[in-house]
Amino acid sequence: MPDRRHSAALFKAVVVRPGGRDGGSTQNIVDELRRVILDGAVPPGTAIPLGEVAEMFGVSHIPVRESLKTLTGEGLVQHRRNSGYAVAQLTASELAEMYIVRETLEFAAMAAALQHATDDDRAHLSEVHVTLEQALKFDDAQAYHRHSRQFHMALSRPSRMLRLVHMLESAWNMTEPVQLMVHVEQSQRELLNDDHRVMLDAFLAGDTESLLAAAALHNKRLNNVVASLPTDTGLVSRDH
């Protein structure tokens, strides 16, 4: 059942653009609710009261309902009869499955990325890695989580395989409400970041074998972290 205790956080995080119709357009509602969910501003299971969202954006229920249907199709929102809409909450096995999907898509993208990467791509990856190091240094788990995604996408986008990268982004979005890096110990983030350094060095050297080997070890660590998440925190629901 959707958790209404966190709905206040949802409304606090949403930014309604001023200015008539555009601020209340279906696309703007979709974009803003998506942003709030992907930012981890509200946890999985948070209720999304249709009427209150409509009032906040100054629109009828229709564009809000259409927006929520779009986000349901993206796997970010769930709708249950008699319970309404809520931020999607995966079961433990569903979350583990999505990490495997991410891993599979990323492997295919990275292998191609090394063949097409430009100096600008390599420079961008290095810059993102610096932000990761800073987040780790200051024990900023939320920043580390955010920059970790940027790092992995910087490894994949140079593949120029736009559909594959889009699928990877979509799979990543479905895991974002959990905000995994926020819920692990600093020591675990340090180990994961050691993998990032090896992956960075291999990418810069154009060493596909070393890159994929480091990525495999990294994903094994991630999968172990996912498997260790407790099911009584609301981050994931128990498997049926």
Q: What would your notes on this structure say?
A:
- With 240 residues, the chain is mainly α.
- It has two domains: 4-87, Winged helix-like DNA-binding domain superfamily/Winged helix DNA-binding domain (Arc Repressor Mutant, subunit A); 92-228, Four Helix Bundle (Hemerythrin (Met), subunit A).
- Helices cover 67% and strands 3% of the residues.
- The chain contains eleven helices and two strands.
- Strands 1-2 form a two-stranded antiparallel ribbon.
- A hairpin with a 3-residue loop joins β1 (77-80) and β2 (84-87).
- α6 (92-116) runs antiparallel to α9, α6 (92-116) runs antiparallel to α11 and α7 (119-137) runs antiparallel to α10.
Features:
Four Helix Bundle (Hemerythrin (Met), subunit A), 2 domains, 240 residues, Arc Repressor Mutant, subunit A, 3% strand, 11 helices, mainly alpha, 2 strands
